[in-house]
Write a structure and sequence with these properties.
Elements (H helix, E strand, L loop, with lengths): L14 E6 L2 E6 L2 E8 L2 H15 L32 H25 L1
Antiparallel strand pairs: 1-2, 2-3
């Protein structure tokens, strides 16, 4: 069996360092429980590093991968929903007639300018 301490992966984490009255507070970004306070910025960072190292000593960090559900375009479920409606052709004809009317008005306005 291999020594697991030699197999540790490097872990990068962002640290929020805040100057407070009497010293510095260092917190692992996104993990408010991972926080230390020290007199100097350097000590705060060093203490936080040791805190995280100790905290993670007996844990395993596992990366999980899952396949996202395949989903189509959200409007596709409505495509063709009126194909068997007997009024569809009438509605489409009215839309086309209105569009031609608007185009004629626009052309007339362009001619007047």
């Amino acid at each position: 069996m291999k020594n697991t301490s030699n197999n540790l992966s490097k872990l990068n984490y962002s640290v929020l360092v805040e100057a407070k009255e009497g010293g510095y507070q260092a917190t692992v970004w996104g993990l408010p429980d991972y926080q230390v306070f020290a007199a100097t910025r350097e000590d705060a960072l060093l203490n936080l590093h040791e805190f995280v190292k100790t905290r993670l000593q007996n844990v395993e960090i596992v990366t999980q991968e899952m396949e996202a559900p395949k989903s189509g375009h959200p409007w596709m479920k409505f495509a063709g929903m009126y194909k068997d409606n007997p009024l569809l052709n009438e509605v489409v004809s009215n839309i086309e007639a209105y569009r031609r009317e608007l185009d004629t008005e626009i052309d007339t306005e362009d001619d007047l300018s």
